Amino acid sequence: MGYPPIRPETREVNAAAEQPHSSPTPPWPPGAQEGRDSTVHDHRRVPWPAPAGRRGGPLTEEPTYMKLDLRRKSLPLALVTLSLGLALASARPVFPLPTYAARTGLDCRSCHFDPNGGGPRNGLGYIYEKQRHDLTPDPDPRWAELPATNKIGDALFVGTNTRMIYLGMGRWSDVQVSSFFTMQGALDVVLQPHANLAIVMVRDFGEFSGDVTRDLYGLLQDGGGRYYVKAGRIRGVFGLRQDDHTAGTRAGFLNAVAGGTGGFLPYDPRAVASGLEAGVTQGGLAFSASLTNGSSAFANKAQTAGAKLMGSVPFGRLGVSFYDDYETSSRRRSTRWSGFGLARVPGAPDLTVQGEVGFGTDDLANGTKRNLLATYFQTDYRINRGVTVRARYDFSDVFRSTPGNASERFGADVEFTLVPFLDLRLGYREIVPETSGNEHQLLGMVHLYY
Length: 450
Known about the structure:
The protein has helices at residues 74-90, 98-104, 123-130; strands at residues 10-13, 44-47, 151-152, 156-171, 174-194, 197-206, 210-221, 227-234, 273-282, 285-292, 304-313, 316-326, 333-345, 348-363, 369-384, 387-397, 406-419, 422-433, 439-449. By secondary structure, it is mainly β. The strands form two sheets. A 16-stranded antiparallel barrel has the order 4-5-6-7-8-9-10-11-12-13-14-15-16-17-18-19. A two-stranded antiparallel ribbon has the order 1-2. It is globular and about 60 Å long.
């Protein structure tokens, strides 16, 4: 879930997203196959005003402290290694939003037009949401009469993702931020004249982003979905896409100020850039690669590259990804690597786990190099069709050789899906910077989607 940083900085918005994979033939509900062989997703970043007294740390002058021992920097690696090992040792083959992918065993393009997941939903994606995040019919007879498609006419798909957030932040005795804001107001439109071609546009009407076009591209693919090419304004393929842009491996959960904590990625993970992307899926392997400007047109030569390889293993899915951006105008270079995995636990099909660890280096072109490390681990348990609980851990260190740049985040959420196309999420975050006081956050989110 997104929340505003406390400086004029940008943060990403929620959006269901993932990476491409192959999976066993799913039990398609009636009408779900239509529009399956193409896909898109969506993240957002918006500027925020800065309350006084904040500099990449908590808001309070006399905050509570939970000291971050630097020896705990090995904890993220241990957690991810252990969790992925357990997932692979005890899960069935899996892979839409990582949680949904793990729960259903479907790949991302099963429900989205974008082969990397997220954004406009196709026929099956609509049915999955209509049935309250499930492939089986909703037992509540009130929802059985809902329209069975998000398609208008023969070729037009429409959808939306609207998220309104409440954030309370500060000390228990001194709440310094308490505000509602509209994080996202996306309108998705897909024109699919035939199964081999889709033209995708995502328009965002967020409160702080203004009226902007996000994704805008053409998707060409073979009839079986084994090969695809995208051209236009696209997102890179790096990392495990997820619905939390503030993850330790994404935009970061602290203010991404120079030399501060947070912001593992050298770019806004919701941003798009003009370029090309191509991918292939064969058997249990899926590979995708992208080449983009990395920034606005003509600012630099088109040398921003990304690649991702995802594979099925006997009990789940694992992946690795790579990103490299060389700015020809400044001669700065940013390189990132990551490994990730997700799975559901056998005997407990509603219990899922996911995690990612990322490493990186920034060459600042002045003789200085900065090494980074970030990770997250999340587990979700769906109590029933209407209630899901989750726990999450994030870690980020954006300058490993210099003390004071590491931070952790501990979080817990409960999500209610009482009616189709509406989620209500309530959560708590405890952010623990290495050298500053703790930051407490209470979050609420109303998510409307179609």
